[in-house]
Input
Amino acid sequence: MKYSKLFSKTLRQPPKEAETINHKLLTQAGFVDQLMAGVYSYLPLGLRVLNKIEQIVREEMDAVEGQEVLMPILHPKSIWETTGGWGKIDVLFKINSRTEKEYALGQSEEEVVTPLVMSRVNTYKDLPLSVYQIHWKFRDELRAKSGILRGREFYMKDMYSFHETQEDFLKYYETVKKSYLKIYEKLGLTAKVTEASGGSFSEKISYEFMVLTDAGEDDILYCSDCDFCVNVEIAKMKVGDPCPRCGGKLDQAKASEVGNVFDLGQKYGKDFNLSFLDREGKKSFPIMGCYGLGISRVMGVIVEKFNDEKGIIWPESVAPFKIHLIGLDQSEENIKSEAEKVYKQLQTEGIEVLFDDRVDVSAGEKFATADLVGIPYRIVISKKTEGKLEVKKRNEKTTEFMSLEDLLKLLAKS
RNA sequence: CGGGGUGUAGUUCAUCGGUAGAACGCUGCGUUUGGGACGCAGAUGUAGCAGGUUCAAUUCCUGUCACCCCGACCA
Output
C-alpha cells in the first residue's frame, strides 16, 4: 500500500480527549477513529492488525477442533427470557422495533448456540463438540473507557463446547487453556491464568487470562516464582503473603483480562430443555463450557505493552505490514524509480509493505510517521543509500545496509 | 448512576461582556529533502445545543448534550 493514497494518515498530535496510551497512539497513528465512547471504526491499518490477531486465534481454535460459525447479533427477546437473562443482565442492550417487538443485541451467545447445536445432537455419539465465532459483542456498560480496552461494542472470539461428562469438559478445558497460552505467546503477550468469580450466572469458578498492564481494570495477586495468580476479588490473601503453591512472595498488579473460560454446567441445556441420549439410553443434559477471547481488547493491550515515546512497536505477528519502505529524495527520478522497483519486488515476494512514496515531505516527517505507526522493519532508499537498502528495526537503534536479496533472507529467518 | 474536568478553525489551544486569534494542518507558487523544513500568498468558524440576564454574550446564569478521568458497574 502506498502511504500517499492512505486516507487515514497520522495526526500531528493525539486528540485531547485521549488519555490512555492505546487511545492516544491508535488514534494518532490512524488505526482507529472514535465514533462515540466505547465505539470505534477500524481504519485500514487498524483492521489489518485486527485481522492478524483474528487469524492467529482462528488457527488455534481450529487446532482444538472448534468449528467456526457466524451467529446473529440481533436476538429475539424470547431466548433471553428462557435463560432469565432478560431481566437480570443489566449490560444486555435491549431495542424496540417499530412494531414494538423487543430484541436484544448479543452480549454473549449461549442463548443462540445452545438450541443451534443441541437441536442437531441426538446421542452421546455426537459429543463432544465445539463451536466458535469471531464477531461483535454489545454490552451496555455504564462507563466505556480506556480506548478500545473497554468498549460498548467489541470484537470477540467466543467458543462453546458441549460434553457428555464433567470429566470430558475438564479435559477439554485444559486443552483450550494450553491453546490460549499459545495464542498469547504468538501475540507477544505473557498471560497469567487466574481464578476468579464466575459472576451471578455461574456458581462455578471461572478462569481468566490476565496480562499485566496499568491500563487494565483488574487487580491480581501473583507469585513471581511460580505461575500462581488470583484475582483480588476472591483472594483470601494479600500482598507479601506467601504463595500457596510454592511459598514465594505475592505481588499485586493491575491487569487486563484478555480471555476467560467458564464452566457453564448444565444450565443452558436445562433452560432450553435440550438433551441427548446418554450411554444408558437416558435423557441427559450437556455439560457446556464457554471460552471468550477479546480480539479488539488484545489489540489495545498490545499497544499498551509495546510502545515508546515515539509511537507503537508492533510485534511482528500482528503488525499491519512487515516493512515500512521510505523513499527519500523522491523528486529525483532515478531514486523514485528505484524505490518503486523495490516496492514492487517486495510485493512480488509476498511481503506486506507500506511504501511512503510522498514527494514533498521531509525525511524527518517520514521517520516520525514510521516510528508512530510502528511497523517492524523500516527500509530507507535515498540518494545516500546508493543502490542498497538501509534497514532498521523499530525496536532497535542501529541501521544496516544490505541488498534486497539479503533482506529477503533476513525476513525469511524471522 | 454519583463526583470531577473539558467543549472556540481539520487538530492543539488563546481570547473572557463590545461581535474571534495563533500554531500546526490544508490550497497555490517558489526554495528545500537524513529526524515532524523555509518564504510568500490564500481558504477555513452558527464559539456543542437551548433558554435567560444585558444596549451588547464565546465570555455571566440555568438547563441540556457530548467526550475524558475517579468511583460504582462490568452474567
About this structure: The first helix of chain A runs from residue 21 to 28. The domain at 323-413 of chain A is CATH 3.40.50.800 (Rossmann fold).
